[in-house]
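Entry 14. Structure prediction run on the chain below.
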Amino acid sequence: MTTTPSSAPRGDRTEHPAERLGPGISVCTVCRNEADKLGPCLESVAWADDVVVMDLESTDGSAELAEAHGARVVRREPVPIVEMVRNEVAAHARHDWILVLDPDERITPGLADALRVVATRPEIHAVVIPRMNYDFGYPPSSPLQRYEPQLRMYRRSEVTWPEVPNALPEVPEEHAHRIPARDELVMIHERSRNIPEVIDRVARYAPLQAQSMIDRGETFTARRMIGELGEGVYRHILLGRAWRDGVPGLIRAGVLVAFKFYVWAAFWQLSGAKRTEQDDRYVRRLGTGLGPLRYLLQAASSVSASYRRIARSLRRSAPSS
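Output returned:
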C-alpha cells in the first residue's frame, strides 16, 4: 500500500508539522470516480480550515477536480469500502477535529455554523449530525431518514474510526454533542440516485458486512434472519410510514429492507450455506403461521379483480356523449 500526497495546497498554505492537531476543522473525504458528485460536496465545505481528499485511482478527473477546489489530494490504491481508510486519510489532516464527508454528501450553511461553535468546546469529543437521505431525488418525510443520526465529526486524538462496514465510532454520551434535528442543520446525502448505484453498493458492502459478523463470532440461524428482516420491515415501512412519500417512499423502504436481506443471504453462504433441521422446523412453523394471511391476500385479490371487471363493464355500458 502506498499513499502519495499531492503538492496542491489549500489557498496559499503549505503543510507543516506544527499546524497538525490545531484548533480548526479538517474535512476528510475518500473518493473513486465520483467527479459528478464531488464538486457540490467540496463547495459545501469551502469554509473549512483544511480539506483532504483521498483519491483511490480515479480515472474520471476526481483528483484534479478536488485540487481545483483547493483540497489537498492523497492518492492511494483502491479499497472495497471507505471504512478501511477513514483513519488513514485522517492521519493526513492538519487539525484534531475531523469532519467525515462522502462525495455524495453536503454540509448546509446552518450546520457549518453549528459545527464551528461545537469545535470550541473542550469537553466534546464527537458530534452526531442529522443526515437527510435523498433517494432517487426525493427527500423523506419520516424523521427516521430525514434526520438520521450520524457521528460524523470527532477529535482524532480521542476517537478512532472502526473498519467494520457501515459502523460508526462509539463515544460516551457525556462527550458527544447532538446537533438538533432541523432542516437547516442537516447533512444532505444523495444516497441512491439510480438502481445501478444501489446494486453496486449492495455488491460491495453486503459480503463484507456478513464477513464482519462471522469475524465477531456470530452464528447464522433462520430465526435471527427472519427477526432482523421483520425488524427492517417494521422500521422502514410501518414505523417510517413509507406510503406517505408515495412510490418513492415505498421504493426507498424496499431498498433498505432488501439490503438487509442480502447481508443475511451472504452471511448464510459464507457460514457454509448449511441446511439444518432446526432452521427447517422454524421456517415450516413460520409458513404455517402465515397461512391465514395467504388466504386473506387471496380474498383481497379476488375482490380487487371483481371490482375491475365491474368497472370495465360499467364503462362499456355508459352512453357516449
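The beta strands are 3-5, 22-31, 50-55, 72-76, 95-100, 105-107, 126-135, 148-155, 176-178, 187-192.
Filed with the rest of this week's runs.
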